[in-house]
């Protein structure tokens, strides 16, 4: 059961973006955190960093693996969720809520992102 | 059984599989004039002939010499139990402890080593060691560069010149700038170091005691670093940490050391042992191996390589450093050495060296024309200005069976008359009397 919120957009690399005017909040999906297992560390970008859609902007480490975070959008980081530095497990418990990663001032409209239903179909296909 | 792994027949078969006619064809991409013409190796010789050659070379060594040589590497007495315990086959032949179930002894030893290093330097955590003190210093600098995303390093000129040379070499291709703050008469200039730290600076790097044996408190320098968002990095002589203000007390972010003086013999340049430790918030930046203690499902204590997800063998491109190994056997020797001495023994060892160095300074400065380089406090090593070129005096005294110390002018132009003399428990007052006599004779 993943409950991908319908107001979010999703990438093929399992990040989400919530558009709020000229900004977007980004994070990793329930599917992503579930696949990684217990998350032990998050390497976040810093305010002022320029993100490019499809390229790495940080990493997450779990007991199983370390994975790159891939930005779903183009833009400049305006805020990061520093609470994750001391509580990375929030990514497991609330990937769509308190586990957000960064707030980005968008450079353009996000492209190639999926709606919830399409993303669920994508995940289902990837599992097989 | 042939000792050459590939027979001509096997070579022909392999070349056929690759689809080339000769070994030279494999290097077709390298222009012929850029290929080595020869390897400058002598012809093969019998085992007996090779042994005879090396025995002849070894006979040039003069092991019985009285020595006051230090400059970063020190002759200490090593308890026999260090060799006996570290030589046990479980340790001596152990390979890398990736499979923790089979390596609990090795892993526990490394964990205890890390604990000992952390306690000695009063830092929060330590890694399983790196190759040597110079490498540790560079890796410390890289921790700062990664964490601050800055590219300038401020380095005290009184940091051991060998380690500064290593730092410069390692940094050569990394677009880092190194600003060296000149020492004055062997003394580090704390105000100048603090003043050089700005918002472009990743770290300020100092040493205690410094290369000239001078002891100082760098708390102010580290406070200035912190104010500017930079790291404070200190390289120390581990034995002296038993009696000096520690890196942790001074507020260092990273403390490193050459661990040779903890149970490693002075064997012509290694193997050495790089100690690395840091404050808790920088643990993720600590390169190399880190062993952690945990419990299994049945609450049994277990030791594991931890923080491995970012390590080189798993995530090469994102590894914190090229180092994915450690000096396990040397680290074990250091641990055994420290545990045999105990905290009190280490204090006595440090005090012994300091007392002897004071005695030597008193005896030698009584000679005409010999004076201390400065009046700063010193550890077991002291710099003296001589009325003559130190290099020449060292050469002359070596003919009389004594190495009086290290001629500083080798690394510091203008200080050709300066001799750096070190004392440990391997020296005696009697040796110092003899040195004073011989030196007085030559001046």
TrEMBL record, chain A:
Entry-linked PROSITE patterns: BIOTINYL_LIPOYL, LIPOYL
Coiled-coil segments: none
The entry's keywords: Lipoyl
Annotated InterPro entries: 2-oxoA_DH_lipoyl-BS, Biotin_lipoyl, GCV_H, GCV_H/Fam206, GCV_H_sub, Single_hybrid_motif
Pfam family, one: GCV_H
SUPFAM superfamilies associated with the record: Single hybrid motif
Cofactor binding note from Swiss-Prot or TrEMBL: Binds 1 lipoyl cofactor covalently.
Modification sites for N6-lipoyllysine: 64
Every Lipoyl-binding domain range: 23-105
Signal peptide: none
Matching PANTHER family: GLYCINE CLEAVAGE SYSTEM H PROTEIN, GLYCINE CLEAVAGE SYSTEM H PROTEIN-RELATED
Family designation: Belongs to the GcvH family.
Purpose: The glycine cleavage system catalyzes the degradation of glycine. The H protein shuttles the methylamine group of glycine from the P protein to the T protein.
Name of this protein: Glycine cleavage system H protein
TrEMBL record, chain B:
One Pfam family here: GDC-P
Keyword terms of this UniProt record: Oxidoreductase
Keyword Oxidoreductase found: yes
Catalytic reactions on record: N(6)-[(R)-lipoyl]-L-lysyl-[glycine-cleavage complex H protein] + glycine + H(+) = N(6)-[(R)-S(8)-aminomethyldihydrolipoyl]-L-lysyl-[glycine-cleavage complex H protein] + CO2
Glycine cleavage system P-protein N-terminal domain residues: 3-436
Gene3D superfamilies with a match to the protein in the record: Aspartate Aminotransferase, domain 1 (3.90.1150.10), Type I PLP-dependent aspartate aminotransferase-like (Major domain) (3.40.640.10)
InterPro entries: GcvPA (IPR023010), GDC-P_N (IPR049315), PyrdxlP-dep_Trfase (IPR015424), PyrdxlP-dep_Trfase_major (IPR015421), PyrdxlP-dep_Trfase_small (IPR015422)
Assembly with partners or alone: The glycine cleavage system is composed of four proteins: P, T, L and H. In this organism, the P 'protein' is a heterodimer of two subunits.
Family: Belongs to the GcvP family. N-terminal subunit subfamily.
Protein name: Probable glycine dehydrogenase (decarboxylating) subunit 1
Organism of provenance: Candidatus Desulfovibrio trichonymphae
Gene: gcvPA
């Amino acid at each position: 059961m993943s409950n991908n919120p319908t107001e979010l957009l999703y990438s093929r690399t399992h990040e989400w973006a919530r558009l709020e005017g000229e900004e977007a909040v980004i994070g990793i999906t329930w599917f992503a955190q579930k696949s990684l297992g217990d998350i032990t560390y998050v390497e976040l970008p810093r305010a002022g960093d320029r993100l490019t859609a499809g390229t790495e902007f940080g990493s997450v480490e779990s007991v199983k693996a370390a994975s790159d975070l891939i930005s779903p959008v183009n833009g400049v980081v305006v805020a990061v969720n520093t609470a994750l530095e001391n509580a990375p497990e929030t990514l497991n418990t609330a990937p769509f809520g308190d586990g957000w990663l960064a707030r980005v001032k968008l450079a353009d409209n996000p492209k190639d992102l999926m709606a919830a239903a399409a993303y669920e179909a994508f995940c289902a296909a990837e599992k097989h | 059984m042939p000792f050459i792994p590939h027979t001509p027949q096997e070579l022909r078969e392999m070349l056929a599989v690759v689809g080339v006619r000769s070994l030279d064809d494999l290097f077709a991409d390298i222009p012929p004039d850029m290929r080595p013409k020869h390897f400058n190796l002598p012809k093969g010789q019998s085992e007996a002939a090779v042994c005879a050659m090396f025995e002849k070379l070894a006979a040039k060594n003069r092991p019985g010499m009285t020595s006051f040589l230090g400059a970063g590497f020190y002759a200490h007495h090593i308890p026999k139990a260090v060799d006996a315990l570290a030589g046990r086959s479980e340790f001596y032949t152990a390979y890398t402890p990736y499979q923790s179930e089979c390596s609990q002894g090795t892993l526990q030893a490394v964990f205890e080593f890390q604990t000992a290093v952390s306690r000695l330097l009063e830092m929060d955590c330590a890694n399983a060691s790196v190759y040597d003190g110079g490498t540790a210093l560079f890796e410390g600098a890289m921790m700062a560069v990664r964490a601050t995303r800055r590219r300038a390093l401020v380095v005290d000129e009184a940091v051991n010149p060998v380690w500064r040379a290593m730092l410069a070499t390692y940094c050569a291709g990394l677009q880092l700038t190194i600003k060296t703050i000149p020492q004055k008469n062997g003394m580090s200039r704390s105000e100048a170091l603090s003043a050089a730290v700005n918002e472009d600076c990743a770290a300020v790097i100092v040493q205690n005691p410094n290369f000239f044996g001078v002891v100082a408190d760098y708390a102010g320098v580290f406070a200035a670093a912190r104010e500017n968002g930079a790291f404070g990095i200190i390289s120390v002589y581990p034995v002296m940490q038993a009696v000096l203000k520690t890196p942790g007390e001074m507020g260092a972010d990273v403390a490193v050391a050459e661990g040779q003086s903890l149970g490693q013999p002075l064997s012509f340049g290694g193997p050495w042992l790089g100690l690395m430790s840091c404050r808790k918030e920088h643990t993720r930046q600590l390169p190399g191996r880190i062993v952690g203690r945990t419990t299994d499902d049945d609450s049994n204590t277990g030791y594991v390589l931890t923080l491995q997800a970012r390590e080189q063998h798993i995530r090469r491109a994102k590894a914190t450093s090229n180092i994915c190994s450690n000096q396990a056997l040397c680290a074990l020797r250091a641990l055994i050495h420290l545990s045999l001495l105990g905290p009190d023994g280490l204090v006595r060892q440090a005090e012994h060296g300091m007392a002897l160095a004071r005695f030597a300074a008193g005896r030698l400065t009584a000679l005409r024309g010999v004076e201390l380089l400065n009046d700063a406090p010193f550890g077991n090593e002291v710099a003296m200005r001589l009325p003559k070129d130190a290099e020449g005096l060292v050469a002359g005294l070596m003919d009389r069976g004594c190495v009086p110390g290290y001629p500083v002018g080798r690394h510091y132009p203008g200080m050709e008359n300066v001799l750096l003399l070190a004392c440990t428990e391997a020296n005696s007052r009697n040796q110092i009397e003899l040195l004073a006599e011989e030196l007085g004779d030559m001046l």
